[in-house]
Design brief:
- There is one protein chain.
- About 20% of the residues lie in helices and about 35% in strands.
- By secondary structure, it is of the alpha+beta class.
- The strands form four sheets. Strands 3, 4, 5, 6, 7, 8, 9, 10, 11, 12, 13, 14 and 15 form a 13-stranded mixed beta sheet that branches. Strands 16, 18, 20, 23, 25 and 26 form a six-stranded antiparallel beta sheet that branches. The chain has a five-stranded antiparallel beta sheet with strand order 17-19-24-21-22.
- A hairpin with a 2-residue loop joins strand 7 and strand 8.
Length: about 500
């Protein structure tokens, strides 16, 4: 006996109610009546109950039962395929089974949705160590161990060691401003830092400055950013640099240095078939460098002067001409600067041009009203055997070339150049160049050169101003520096 489609539709609805246990007394009686009139429906109900149990087990293994809206009511989607019992039952069962499968997929991917909704960690680096640090403006905690997000760090004093998540380590020194951009990029606005980026994960670490962008190639390098330029020195490995002023790219390797920005303006375009010009910078802060200033006063030696008498001397190398009138004569007024630079990194280089850079800063000593326009002369020490002077014990008497008349000994010194400081001006960057400087460098035979700077100003009276050349201890300005433009290697 064939069951009418209308009966099958009614049976399907009642079966759903039976499985959901929502049938009232009249509906339950109608279901029993249909199975009595159409015995094959009992087999269908039995199959549905078995399928329902299987589907429940499958869904319960996922941790929840999925529900959909059916006919305006919430209905659990456990259905059988009525394959043998007509088009309506078959299509309905398939649709319900698809809902079950979809529900199971929703359950399985729900943890992923839940996880992706969690906010990512915004921090990019960690403060690993702080030594005598004082900070000005920061956008986050600066305690040791603090996690750092993108933002600005302004270090007044001390040294802070910051490790980026990529593995690069930045040692930030006093009077420096660093802005963290992302896990492999930062900006050094001013000041000094040393970057160690040796792990493979740190390769490509970038430090931007107003004058140059430095990209690490697995190395250790230092940066010194001042008001007019930025100096890069490679201690290990190599870096790539890009200068936004002229769009040039340069690669620096171990023991090579370069200065970017004003006042160094050399063109890097090769000439006459020569290889690309390479800029190397060496200073008193480079390995082997020395610096000191001496005072005409036998009662004050270098040690006492450094520790107590002039506490700011670690920043400046002091210059003064003691030309006082007889009634105010002070024999301890004269001050001269001496510094030496190791040239061994240039041993096989062909030098095309050379510059000497001196950065003068405001010492705050004395009054500029008592000083006219001031003239200074720079000398080079010709006698290589006297290059072994000791910066820690240097005095006026032991400085090479000082004679009893307080004048420079022309037999051991040669003039390199001179410069002027107009009255009222304390801060200025001096660049000396020319044939005299280049010949002095080329005639050197022991890979070390010594310079002396003397104040030649006349008629200074009273508590006149004391000029200062920034030394390697200055937090922002560059120490005495030689800048070389090299064209390949020397011909043998």
């Amino acid at each position: 006996m064939t069951t009418p489609k209308s009966i099958l539709r009614e049976f399907a609805v009642l079966t759903e109610g039976q499985l959901r246990q929502t049938l009232d007394h009249a509906e339950a009686e109608r279901l029993l009546q249909l199975m009595a009139e159409y015995p094959e429906l009992a087999d269908i109900l039995d199959d549905n109950i078995k399928m329902d149990g299987l589907l429940r087990d499958a869904v319960e293994e996922q941790g929840e039962i999925v529900q959909v809206l059916s006919g305006g009511r919430a209905a659990t989607v456990y259905r059988n395929q009525f394959v043998r019992y007509g088009k309506y039952i078959f299509s309905t069962a398939m649709a319900l089974l698809l809902l079950v499968i979809t529900g199971m997929m929703v359950v399985s991917v729900a943890p992923y949705w839940q996880e992706s909704s969690v906010s990512p960690d915004p921090t990019l680096a960690t403060i690993m160590d702080t030594r005598n640090c004082q900070w000005r403006q920061t956008t986050f905690s600066t305690e040791k161990g603090a996690r750092l997000a993108a933002g600005r760090l302004e270090l007044l004093t001390g040294i802070a060691t910051i490790k980026f998540d990529c593995g690069a380590v930045v040692s930030l020194e006093s009077s420096s401003t660093l802005e963290i951009i992302d896990p492999k990029r930062c900006v050094l606005t001013d000041g000094r830092c040393v970057v160690t980026a040796e792990p493979e994960s740190a390769k490509g670490f970038v430090v931007e400055t107003p004058f140059v962008t430095v990209t690490d190639e697995g190395t250790k390098f230092s940066l010194n950013v001042g008001r007019e330029s930025a100096d890069v020195s490679v201690l290990k490995g190599s870096v790539k640099t890009w200068c936004p002023e002229n769009g040039t790219n340069t690669r620096l390797i171990k023991n090579e240095s370069a200065s970017y920005g004003s006042p160094v303006t050399w063109d890097a375009v090769p000439r006459n078939g020569e290889s690309l010009a390479h800029v190397i910078q060496l200073s008193t802060a480079s390995p082997g460098g020395k610096e000191a200033w001496v005072l005409v006063d036998p009662n004050i030696n270098m040690h006492v002067r450094r520790v107590a008498y002039y506490p700011w001397c670690d920043r400046f190398l002091l210059l003064k001409r003691g030309g006082y009138p007889a009634e105010n004569q002070r024999p301890n007024a004269d001050r001269r600067v001496i510094f030496g630079i190791d040239l061994s990194p240039l041993r096989d280089k062909k030098i095309d041009e050379v510059q000497l850079k001196l950065s003068l800063g405001n010492t705050g000593m004395g009054f500029m009203s008592f000083v006219p326009d001031s003239r200074f002369v720079v000398y080079g020490l010709r006698d290589d055997q006297q290059d072994n002077w000791d910066e820690a014990t240097m005095t006026w008497e032991t400085m090479p070339g000082n004679n009893s008349d307080f004048e420079m000994d022309s037999s051991v010194y040669t003039p390199i150049g001179e410069f002027m400081m107009p009255q009222g001006v304390a801060e200025k960057t001096i660049i000396l160049s020319g044939d005299a400087l280049k010949e002095f460098i080329e005639n050197d035979e022991n890979d070390f050169v010594t310079f002396v700077v003397e104040d030649k100003t006349e008629a200074a009276v009273g508590d006149s101003y004391v000029f200062g050349i920034a030394g390697r201890g200055h937090p922002k300005q560059s120490p005495p520096t030689l800048i070389f433009k090299c064209l390949g290697k020397k011909s043998k």
